[in-house]
Design goal:
Layout lengths: L1 E12 L2 E12 L3 E5 L6 H8 L7 E6 L2 E5 L8 H8 L2 E4 L11 H14 L5 H21 L15 H13 L5 E5 L7 H16 L4 E4 L3 H7 L2 E6 L2 E6 L1 H6 L4 H11 L2
Parallel strand pairs: 3-8, 3-9, 6-7, 7-8
Antiparallel strand pairs: 1-2, 1-4, 4-5, 9-10
Helix pairs in contact: 3-4, 3-5, 4-5, 5-6
Length: about 260
């Protein structure tokens, strides 16, 4: 079953077209890895999926429902944007934790804010809050930080902060979890702990899109690989297809440059 279908997506900034008709599908439990040089459009694609940017053309379908279709798209209200963003969780390069909140509050803030929009009795509200807090604690334990519930971001290493960010992205149980270069802001010795968490999420059957420059990790975790160049999909296939038998000269050059670093 396709969780996500992206068809002919385009995005421009002024006269510069960054995404030029990108199409792909993502099945339940599949991990899609996006690779490519800086400026190839990978991050903009993720931002379009998460509605941090509005695409200019094409469509985005989640679980059989169009969440964006440029042909009949009206201006989205803030409420509509919030609802559509719930389909996707995004883990940023630079963590983006709230420095004024501890770990547990960072992870549970979004679900608690959503709870305020619901019309519940006092008893129902208390029960729902308790469930959110318990789920937050479980997610934090899952990323190996159960002893850091009351810690603030400034006291955590970069790897720990990124693991909190992953727990936060999971708190609203998105259909697709997206990672934008999740290890690029980390020292090499901290990269492994974040990649281990992502691998454990794959083992749990999470549907994910991962933008990364970690080629060895991409080979081992991906079910499908897309190489982007200049806003288009230059090549795609299984990890074996793309990494071991690339067909495009641009893909070959990109992989060779990475191997020579």
């Amino acid at each position: 079953m396709n969780v996500l279908e992206v068809n002919n997506l385009t995005k421009s900034f002024g006269e510069h077209q960054v995404i030029k008709g990108v199409s792909f599908n993502l099945k339940q439990g599949e991990v899609l890895v996006l690779i490519g040089s800086s400026g190839s459009g990978k991050t903009t694609l993720l931002r379009c999926l998460n509605f941090l940017e509005t695409p200019d053309g094409g469509s985005i379908n989640v679980l059989g429902e169009d969440v964006f279709n440029a042909e009949n798209q009206c201006k989205m209200s803030d409420k509509m944007l919030r609802e559509r963003r719930l389909h996707f969780g995004l883990v940023f390069q630079s963590f983006n934790l709230f420095p004024q909140h501890n770990v547990l509050k960072n992870v549970t803030l979004a679900p608690l804010l959503r709870l305020k929009e619901k019309k519940l009795s006092k008893e129902e509200m208390k029960k729902a809050k308790d469930e959110i807090l318990e789920n937050g604690k479980q997610l934090i334990a899952m990323v190996g930080l159960e002893d850091k519930l009351d810690a603030y971001p400034c006291t955590l290493s970069g790897g720990q902060q990124q693991r909190v960010a992953i727990a936060r992205a999971l708190a609203l149980n998105p259909d697709v979890l997206c990672f934008d270069e999740p290890t690029s802001a980390l020292d090499p010795e901290l990269t492994g702990e974040v990649l281990r968490v992502i691998r454990s999420l794959k083992d749990q059957g999470r549907t994910m899109i991962v933008v990364t420059h970690e080629m060895e990790f991409a080979k081992n975790v991906a079910d499908h690989v897309i190489y982007m160049a200049d806003g288009v999909i230059e090549e795609e296939g299984s990890p074996a297809d793309v990494f071991e038998n690339p067909q495009s000269d641009r893909t070959k050059a990109f992989l060779a440059a990475g191997a020579n670093k």
